[in-house]
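Worked Example 4.2. Consider the chain below.
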Amino acid sequence: MKYKIRMTLKSPLFIGGSVQTLNPVDYIRYGNYLYPISEQAFFEFLQEKNLLDLFSLQLGKKYRSPQDLLKDKNLLNKEALNRISKESIKVAPQNYFREYHPFIKDIYQQPYVPGSAVKGALRTGILYGILQKMKMNNIKQYNKLVVQKIESIKHKKGNNIAFLDNIERQSLQNFYLNYRGLGKVENPHKDLLRAIKVSDSNSLSQNQTTIMEIKVLNFNNESQLYCKASVFVECLPAETEVEFEISIDEHIYDIFKSGSTTESLPFEDIEDIFSFWKQLSKGIFADEYKYFEFALNNRIDNHSKTRISINPLLNYYRRPTEEVNFRLGWGSGLNSMTMLLLLEPKLRQQWGRVVSDRDFPLFPKTRKIIWDNDQLLSPLGWAKLDVI
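Applying the procedure from the previous section yields the following structure tokens:
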């Protein structure tokens, strides 16, 4: 079973690659665009202009960056930039930064959405569906697998969330205990997600990304929401469309199906998989709205103590959940990456107390939000998946 999928972004998306950060030595900013430098092309350009030795000797002294050299030698122009850079990235004129986190790109420096990122998010939705069904139909098993594990760490200090991996392994790798020929040992070959394969998306043109400012929101000890330091990331903007394929390997699927004697498999086709995320999306929307509604009744300020409006975020989470059915990428938060929403409020608060070593009515406490023109604009990573 193979399905062609169109993913339409409903908020900006950031997925990082092997290059973690770029700083002024790695790019040139000119007008409302930023040009990442191709090292080979740049050195060939300098050699042609007899500037290679000068740059090598003066970098870090007279010239702090390649841009300083080009500006000093009256070479900072579009013609030169097109020679030393393979791409241009939009950047708002009010955004000032030294380093940013680039979006993942292929060998031709074209952005794309990796299949591994999509499959990781699908995994979260399927896990949520399995545990939600278990909670409704077998509360004893659910309590043993989830609740008791969280309660067992309540006296431990620090960021102890390793038990999430254990819950995932037992749910997806050892959920069905009688696979034909595989035995009862916990084994990654018994991972149900082996039956799902996701291709990388089509590559996009090099000028479709934008560098955006991200604010990290947090509550202080007085339950007041504030904006922490900014992070700048290269994003695909909302309404960007990409296409990829999701396939369910029928041979592997049939092995799991024939070996499962006590339980039915949690999905049969793509609609079943999408249905898990539809339910999860509704839960996330409700929880995010609750978070920002709580913030509305508390003082909101940035470093200059200026009140900030969060109405754009409340409005975002008032939209019908039918408009979105998926979330992925950096900044999507614990609610989108774990089974956290299945926990009762007291248990969530207890887990938060262990993780942050602080008692607070909402957990998680932080959110990563797009910041533009001195206001909070939108969350990250929401999308709509459609079979085409």
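Residues 278 and 322 are 8 Å apart (CA to CA). The chain has a mean pLDDT of 84. Compare this with Example 4.1 before moving on.
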